[in-house]
Structure formats: structure tokens, C-alpha cells
Amino acid sequence: MRLFGFQIPPVFSLLFWIALWEIAGQYELAFILPPFSDVVSELFILIQRADFQDAAMLTFRAFVIGMAISIVLGIFIGFAMGSSRMANSVLGMWVNIFASAPLSSLVPILMLLFGLGQTTIIVTVVLFSTWIIALDTYAGVNHISPSMSEMGRSFGATRRQLLTKVLFWAALPEILAGVRMGLIRAVKGIVIGQLLVSVVALGRLFRTFSDNFQFEQFWALTIILFIFALTFSSAIGWLENKVEYYANTRG
Amino acid sequence: MSDVATAAPLNPASATPENIVEVRNISKFYGSVHALDKINLSFPKGQMTTLLGPSGCGKTTLLKIIAGLLEPSDGEVLINGKVVNGPGPERAFVFQDFALLPWATVLRNVAFGMELAKVPKAEREDKARHYINEVGLSGFEDKYPHELSGGMRQRVGLARAMVVKADVLLMDEPFSAVDEQNRRKFQEDLLHLLAAENKTVIFVTHSIEEAVYVSDQIVLLSPRPGQIHSIIRPEISRDTSPDDIRRDKKYLDAVENIWTDLRKYLD
Fold first, then answer.
1. Which of A145, A149, A155 to mutate to test the interface with B (most CBs of B within 10 A)?
2. Which residues of B touch A161 (CB under 8 A)?
3. Alpha helices in chain A (DSSP H)
4. Most confident of A23-32, A147-156, A227-236
5. What average pLDDT is seen over chain A?
6. Nearest to B113 among A145, A155, A251 (CB)
7. What is the Cα–Cα distance from A151 to A171, expressed in whole angstroms?
8. What pLDDT sits at residue B13?
9. Cα–Cα 20 to 30 A to B131, which of A40, A47, A84, A250?
10. Which residues of chain A neighbour B146 with C-beta distances below 8 Å?
11. Could you give the CA distance from residue A179 to residue A71 in angstroms, rounded to a whole number?
12. B70 in helix, strand or coil?
């Protein structure tokens, strides 16, 4: 951005909004918006609280397990759809339905099925992220130039070698894009899910804070979640950049 | 046209050891499209045979059938007198679009055939370095394909095919994605390299000059369905310099004769 001929670094936009927030908070323009400085100091208190740490650990562990399952399952389904016409016609419709369906409404049912603990969070993550990973993997497999697998076969690759040494790497840029989208959907899934039935983990904290008009804590928790989602998504983005050089040059 | 072989298709009983590759009665249909029709061909050991013809004559299809990458609808392919189904270590393929692994260095790409065959890393990299040097790419071992020009990428593809010690080299329009100047240099280097290796080469091209320049034997295919039109042996001496070859009367005559034959297939 340029202002009066000066180059403005992007971070200034963030600082501008934070300043606006701080002013709005200090003048008590809206009761849900406490000053930003109060939110930040509350954030540091919050991350030291035992109930927050328990909730965060439970959610985080379940999130990682759920993502691991989604990635394996999604890649498997995507490759099955990409390499077999039958698998594509059997699975394709369901994957597309699940990838676009409003899954949040299913979360309360999952809680009835799997209880209020870690299992529900894992299932939520898997349900929210697997399908987009499968769809992107499928797109990646379809995008591979036929001469790549011909090359593998002509140099004597076994089926397994062809998958692990050629096709997986050739589809990796799309797979990573799918993982990043899946990850963002999973974060949404967890937050929405926990809010809908706010008796577990972070969802309960959110409910407590908003019910008791503790907006400093509420915003602090929101910011923590934002940072968490952004960090994960940038980590995948960094990996994507590392493989992008060949995504642009293949075929 | 005195240099057209008269009895082109050989009879199936003569699987002589001199013919390392034999194609017998190959037909190929893609659905209702008749791509190849009863092709019979012999490829003499240690020689360079070009499959030449207008687009749609099935020359790449025939090459891929010989490679074992495509199934013929009918007929069989013999390597060293044995019927083969699918690819094998006695054949190596050079791809029109190079088909290099973009995530692997030149060294790993060249050694990839041996990596699949589980040759120990030190050994396969040693051998790969030798051929990287042979194709004139030493110093580029740690570069990635996207850092190389088209001509250099195809040199990697050639080194990868040479290093696996296959007797038969199958090349599918290997220079079509290479610019004209590099193409000439590459043709000269290829002949030089092959002279030392005693390889049998089957080469697909649509360039008449290229076919005559590199080939011992040229198979002219006619289109729809692909059939053998004629087999030409240019009989050009390869002992002289590349420039002399391109001025040789036999070279110029062969180019002219093939052009006369092919132009009737053009619209």
C-alpha cells in the first residue's frame, strides 16, 4: 500500500486496526469491546490458568490425532478415486457431498454417539477435513502427466514403487493444498462443534466467558485460536512453497 | 528409388539373432479407430532405425507397444527371439516431454532406474556420474530439472536411459521440444555417443532431415490405419564430419525421395 507517496508495510494495517480497537475500548464505545491492552494482559493470565491448559491440551492432542487420520484417509481415498474409475464412481459422489455439506449440524449427534471427550473432537476433525484432502489429492493425481507413470513402468517400477517414488511426489503440491484447507476446516469444525455443545474443553470456556460478560477473556481466547490456526496454516503454506517450484515446472 | 528395400516385412520364421527386436503382425485399435494395421518389422542389432511418417500414422503407438507400455490389439513383440509382454530391462525409453522427476536432482534422475532396481546408492551414483559426463552435463549433477534448458533436460533423459545398460534404446521424438541449434548439436552428440556403445536404437521423429541424418534404416509409415509404406536404407558413410554428411548426395537424395513419398499424405 502507498500513502502520500510513502510505501506502507502491511503490518501497519494491523497496527492501525489495533489502535482503533484500543481507542474504541478506552472510550467504552461498545460494551463487548474492552481495550485491546486489557485483552492482551488477560491473554497472558489465561494461558497460565489450569482449566485453559487442560482444555487446550485436550483439544490440541485430539486435533493432531484427527488431522493425522484425515491426511492418511484423504490421500488414500484421493488416490483410489484417481487411479480407478470404479472407485471414483462409488466414492466421488459421497466425497463431494461431504466436502460441501454443512457438517456442523452433525456435531451434536457425534457427541451423543461418542460422548463428550477426545473421541468426539477427533471424529469432528476427520469429518471436517478428510473430504477436501481427498478431492485435492484426486485433482493432483489427475494432473500427473501420463508420461510420468510410463517412465516409472519402463524403468521397471513395481506398483508400490510407482506410488511411493513417483505418483505421490507428483501429486504432493495438490495434496498439501488440500491438507491446508482441511486444517482450516478442522479448526472451524472444532470451534463450532464445541460451541454448539459447550460442555467440553474450549467450548465450555467460550460459553463461560460470554455468559458472564468476561469479554477480555473471550477476546483473548479468540486471539489464541486465531494465532493457532494461522500458525498451522502458515506452516503448511511454507511446505507448499518448498514444493511449488516443481509444481510450476512439471508437465 | 533404388535404395528402397523390396521385401520389407520379414517372414515370421526368421527370428535370427541379428534382429534384436521383431514386431509380428501388430494391430492396434483405439475403440473404433484403427491405429496400426498388421505391422511386421525387424530391427537389426546395433543399428538405428527410425519410424517416420505424418501425424496420425501410429509411429509413437508402435514405439510404445515395443516398449511394453501399450498392449497391442493383435500380434506380438519379440526381443532376442522371446515374446515379451510389458516393459523389461533390455529396453530403455527416452520421452518426448523428458518425464524427469522435478523434485529430484540431475544425479538422482539419471540414477532413477537403478534406484528402482535397488542398486546401492554409491554404486548407482558412480555410474550416473559417468553418463552425466558422457552427455556433457558434468557440473550440473546437483541442479534440478527446472534449472536446465530443454536440450539439457533431454540430455538427462538420455543419460538415464543409457546408464541402465539396456540393449535397445527407444526414443520418442526426443528432440521435438529442443530448439533448432541445440537439436543439431544434440543429434551429432547422440551419434557420437552411440558409436561407442553398440546400442540398437528405435527412433520416432516427424523430421525427414533428422531421420536421414541419424538412421541406418528408415521405416516410412502411412496413416489411417498405420501401415508400412516402405523401408529405406540411406547408406550414408558416418566416417565423415557432420557437415559433410549434410552435403552428401545420398543424404540429399534420400531426404528428397522421402519428401516425395510423404507429400501425398498431406492435405
1. A155
2. 116
3. 11-26, 36-46, 50-83, 85-100, 107-114, 118-143, 146-154, 159-161, 168-196, 201-211, 215-247
4. A147-156
5. 82
6. A155
7. 16
8. 45
9. A250
10. 245-246, 248-249
11. 7
12. coil
| CATH fold for the domain made of B1-90+168-267 | Rossmann fold (3.40.50)
* A166 close contact with B: CB closer than 8 A: yes
Minimal Cα distance from A167: which residue of B? B101
What's the whole-number mean pLDDT along residues A42-69?
85
The model's pTM is 0.79
Contacts of A145 in chain B (CB under 8 A): 97, 99
CATH class of the domain comprising A51-247? mainly alpha
Q: How many CB pairs under 8 A join A and B?
A: 65
Q: Quick: pLDDT tens for A144-169.
A: 888 899 999 999 888 889 988 999 99
CB atoms within 10 A of CB B39: 25
Report pLDDT for B36.
Answer: 85
> Which residues on chain B are in Cβ contact (under 8 Å) with A246?
102-103, 144-146
Domain segments of chain B: what residues?
1-90+168-267, 94-165
Which residues are CB-neighbours of A9 under 8 A, at least 6 positions away?
Answer: none
Is the CB of B116 less than 8 angstroms away from the CB of A153? no
In this complex, do A155 and B97 lie within 8 Å of one another by their Cβ atoms?
no
Q: What is the pLDDT of residue B136?
A: 86
Instruction: Give the residues of chain B that fall short of pLDDT 70.
Output: 1-17, 267
Q: List the domain boundaries for chain A.
A: 51-247
